[in-house]
Amino acid sequence: MAIVDITVIPVGTGTPSVSEYVAEIHKVLQQYEGRVKYQLTPMSTLIEGDLKLLLEIVHELHEVPFRKGLKRVCTNVRIDDRRDKENTMERKLQSVQAKL
């Protein structure tokens, strides 16, 4: 199981606010409910699941601003794919909290 950290940056929106685009991205993620876990943060979105599916979702999320009429989108993606043991968002947080 992998964890993807994705930030979709719409360019040329005419306003500094991007919440409209973030909301549309989360509507897309809702379609994957039960197949992946996801969490909105103030700066990005975390998605947990099978890497192949996550990469398909990344592509779909990158397309959201284009479907809304924009001509340029920058997307940052980080992938944490650990294969020696189960890798979940909760497990990573528990590991740090246990050490505090």
Helices and strands, with pairings:
Layout: E1 2-11, H1 19-30, E2 37-40, E3 45-49, H2 51-67, E4 72-81, H3 89-99
Antiparallel strand pairs: 1-3, 1-4, 2-3
Helix pairs in contact: 1-2
Describe this structure in words.
- This protein is α+β, with helices and mostly antiparallel strands and 100 residues long.
- It has a single domain (2-99), classed as Alpha-Beta Plaits, CATH 3.30.70.
- Helix content is 40%, strand content 29%.
- The chain contains three helices and four strands.
- A four-stranded antiparallel sheet has the order 2-3-1-4, covered by helices on one side.
- A hairpin with a 4-residue loop joins strand 2 and strand 3.
- Helix 1 (19-30) packs across helix 2 (51-67).
- The longest helix is centred in the middle third of the chain and has 17 residues, at 51-67.
- It starts with a strand and ends with a helix.
Number of helices: 3
- Counted up, domains total 1
Percent of sequence in beta strands: 25-35%
Question: What integer value in Å does the Rg equal?
Answer: 15 Å
Report strand order across the widest sheet. 2-3-1-4
**Overall average residue pLDDT:** 96
Could you name the CATH topology?
A: Alpha-Beta Plaits
| Shape label | elongated
